[in-house]
UniProtKB/TrEMBL annotation:
Protein residues bound to Zn(2+) 2: C93, C96, C99, C107
Organism: Actinomadura syzygii
Role of this protein: Catalyzes the NAD(+)-dependent oxidation of L-threonine to 2-amino-3-ketobutyrate.
Active site residues of this protein: T40, H43
Protein name per the record: L-threonine 3-dehydrogenase
Length: 342
């Protein structure tokens, strides 16, 4: 089969013929239809410091995908040949304390699909059946391909009740925009999203946020005043990993405000802990998706009319992966999808 491979320790990817994956009794084999390009894939392509630590070439990349089940192992139940599935890309041990307690998203032995083992940028991918999410209702294939990052957005946005709340989202990347869309769908009152990219702020306007804010020109405090928020924001969704974003968020939260933090900083930085303490602010770290409560919420949101199409801005046949990766790395895009049926 054809696959996108990180062949050696250095920049670049190769489209190569590799053996089809071997499946066990608890696995499913999936014919890949669409894949989404993630920031993780860009790091691996560049083979930066993180990738040098995390990846051992040769490796088939990719963890955002949708496909059709073509065969199942002898012990598999609940998934059938012909099912349309997306994949939970965090493979857990099943035996640690958190796994046994049903908190699989907290497994400390998690292996990442397309990072710690061969992934989905290929014509076929093997996956434990317990990691396959079956789409029981009609769904656009491009949307189904980005269920993994959509899950990050849903997990973050639904960390706290949103009905009637004023929400600040810092970082208008694709996941931040999807989180803003979820907040709108879930009944938030005002939603402000910040960035320094006018392109991405324009994408955010398409999902119905109350206010987009270029923080290179306008402060969060000014936006708060413009909306008439006398006490500050109730909910913060930090999606950028930028120190100035979190500091600005903390400074503009109401007393008792709650922050869910998905953005991953590149290094340690200082925050005003006296403000966190005296304002009684809650900060929750978020990584990945809850298995599988987040996935239920994702499907229900899509069935309920949540439209992710504004976030998908690039569609390429897999043979044009170089152009697709360049698009994804440009910053002038939303989500970029590869078509493996071409």
């Amino acid at each position: 089969m054809k696959a996108l491979v990180k062949e050696e320790a250095g920049p670049g990817l190769s489209l190569r013929h590799v053996p089809e994956p071997v499946t066990g009794r608890g696995d499913v084999l999936i014919r890949v239809l669409r894949t989404g390009i993630c920031g993780t894939d860009l790091h691996i392509r560049a083979f930066d410091g993180w990738a040098r630590r995390a990846v051992r070439p040769p490796l088939v990349l990719g963890h955002e995908f949708v496909g059709e089940v073509t065969s199942i192992g002898g012990d598999v139940t609940g998934v059938r040949v012909g099912d349309l599935v997306s994949g939970e890309g965090h493979l857990v041990c099943g035996t640690c304390r958190n796994c046994l307690a049903g908190r699989r998203h907290l497994c400390h032995r998690t292996v990442g699909l397309g990072v710690g083992r061969d992934g989905a940028f290929a014509e076929y991918v093997a996956l434990p059946a317990s990691n396959a999410w079956v789409h029981h209702h009609p769904i656009d294939l491009d949307t189904a391909a980005i269920f993994d990052p959509f899950g990050n957005a849903v997990h973050t946005a639904l960390s706290f009740p949103l009905v009637g709340e004023d929400v600040l989202v810092t970082g208008a990347g694709p996941i931040g925009i999807m989180a803003a869309a979820v907040a709108r769908h879930a009944g938030a009152r005002n939603i402000v999203i910040t960035d320094v990219s006018e392109y991405r702020l324009e994408l955010a306007r398409r999902v119905g946020v109350s206010l987009t804010l270029n923080v290179a020109k306008t402060s969060v405090a000014e936006a708060k005043e413009r909306l008439g928020l006398q006490e500050g924001f109730d909910i913060g969704l930090e999606m950028s990993g930028r120190p100035e974003a979190l500091r600005g968020m903390i400074a503009n939260m109401t007393h008792g405000g709650r922050i869910a933090m998905l953005g991953l900083p590149t290094e340690e930085f200082a925050v005003d802990f006296s403000r966190i303490v005296t304002s009684m602010i809650t900060i929750k770290g978020v990584y990945g998706r809850e298995m599988f409560e987040t996935w239920y919420a994702m499907s229900v949101l899509i069935e309920g009319g949540l439209d992710l199409s504004p976030v998908i801005t690039g569609r390429y046949p897999y043979q044009d992966f170089e152009a697709a990766f360049d698009d994804a790395a440009s910053g002038q895009c939303g989500k970029v999808v590869l078509d493996w049926t071409a």
